[in-house]
Amino acid sequence: MVLRSSHRRGREAARTCTRPGGHRRPTLGAIAVGVATLTCGPRPGTGAAVPASGSHSQLPGGPPPPRNGLQLPSLAVAWSPPTLTAGDAEALAAALAASPSVEVLLGPGQTGWDARVGPALQALSPGLKITSVRQAEQAAIVARPEALAGVREADSGRPRYRSDDILLQETWLRRHDPSASSIVSVDAAALDLTAWRALPAARVGGCEPAVRALAEGQEQGLAQLEGFLNHADALLWQFYSAQLAAFVPEIQAELRPFASGQAPDEADAKARFECGRAYWEHLQPYVACKSAEPCQVAPRVVLSAGGARVAAPEPPLALSDRCPMLVGRDYPGELRQLGLDAAEAATAALDRDWSTLADRLGAVAEVHAVLEDICTPRRWRFAAPDLFEARDRLARVGELLSSPELALPQATWRVEAADLFVPGAGPMRQLARFDPGPASVNPTIAAEARGLREFVLSRAQCRSGHDPRPMSVLVADAESGRARFFGYLYAEELVCGDLPPLGRE
After folding, report:
1. pTM of the model
2. CA 456 to chain CA mean position, Å
3. Neighbours of 300 (CB within 10 A)
4. What does DSSP assign to residue 250?
C-alpha cells in the first residue's frame, strides 16, 4: 500500500520520484506476485560491455558508496489501535461527579449487568455510592420517549447528545429510592439502526503519529536513495535501448505485412493474420522508444512491499495460444526477453550496498500495510500493557529500518520473471529482484511487522459478539426529574472484562 494520509496529501509528489524521460517512479506499495512465466524464442545478447561491479567501488555516473543505513525518523511514538465509540464516557463521568449516590435501573435487555454496572460507574466516579440496582425499562420512566433519539453534537472529539428534552415521569419519581440523589438508567437504545450506521464514525485513539513518522521516513529514504535509483534506471536504459535498437527493427519488418489490409477468408489464414495484427499493435510502444531517452515500456527499479525490483510495464495483449505456431515466432516472449537481458546486465553492475538500502526501504510498504490493518477503527479494547508492547514492537521495526547494516556477502540481484502489481503504476512485469540474503535485517523487518499485526489481533478484547445497537445511558436528578446527562455508549465502552471504561485506561 502506498503511504498516504489525509494530512499529507499536499506532499504526495515528494514521495513519487520523477526521472528523466518524464515517467514517474512507482512509490512503495504492496504487490501481488504471480507465477513466473518463461518465454520461448531466441535469446538475443546485449552486445554491450558490463561495468565492473562491487559494493565499495563507485560506478561511473553513480553516487559514492553509502557509509551508513537509512536515515529515518524513530517510530517510538505514541499511538494506539483506534476503538469505535458511540458517545462520551467522560461526559457521563462529569454527570456522575455531581451525584454522590445513585439508583441504577437496568433495561430488560441488560441481563447479567447487575454485578458489572456498579463497578463501571464507580470507575468513572470514584466514591460514587450505588444505593440499589433494579430492572426498569428506560422508555417507561421518560416523559418524552421520542427524545431518546437525541441530537448528536457536531463538534470535534467524542459524540455528545442533547438531554434538555428529557424529563422523568412524576408518577415514577414518587417510587424511586429516596436515599439516592440521582437515577442512572441503562437500556438498549431506541433508535433506527440504519440511521445510526449512517452517522460518521467516532473513535478513541489512533495511529496518526506512527503513520506520519512512517511517511516522513519514506520521503527521507527516497531522497537519500534518489541518486542511486536514477543511476540504476539510467543503466537499465543504456542496456535496454541497445537491445531495442538491435532487435526491434527486424521484428517490425517481419510484422509490417500485418499492419494493414483485410484478413483472408480462409480460417487458418484469417487466424494467422489476426495474430500478426495483434503482434504488430503490441510492438508499437517498443517502436516508439527513442534511443535518446527512456520510454514507457523501459525497465526501471521499483520499491514494493517485497523489496527492490526491476520491473517494466507491458502493453496489453489478448490472443490465442496458437499464435506463436501460426505466425512462426513468439514475438511478445522475445520482447520480454530483451528486458530480462537488460536487467541481468544492469543489475550485475549495481552497487550492492545501495541495492540493500533500496530493498530495505521497500519494507516500509509492508509496515504501512500492517498499520493500515490494525489502525482501522473497530469495536475492540486493549489493556495498557498490551498497548505498550505494541508500541515497543513498532519501535523495534523502526530500529531495523534504520539499521546501519549494509550488504552482506550473500546479497545479490536475481533475474526472475513474475507478474507484479505496483500501486500507482498498475500491472508490471518483474524482471529481477534483489535478494539481501537470509541473514540480512531486511526480511526481518517484514516478519516483525507481521508479528506486530498478529500480536494486536490476538490481544484485542471484547472484539466479537457485539449488539449492533449501542446502549442509551440516562442520568437524571431524583428530585427535579430533569436529565443531567443522556448519551449512547457501546457495551464494551462501559464494561469489558477487567478494563476500566473507555478513556480511563
Report:
1. 0.81
2. 15
3. 26
4. H
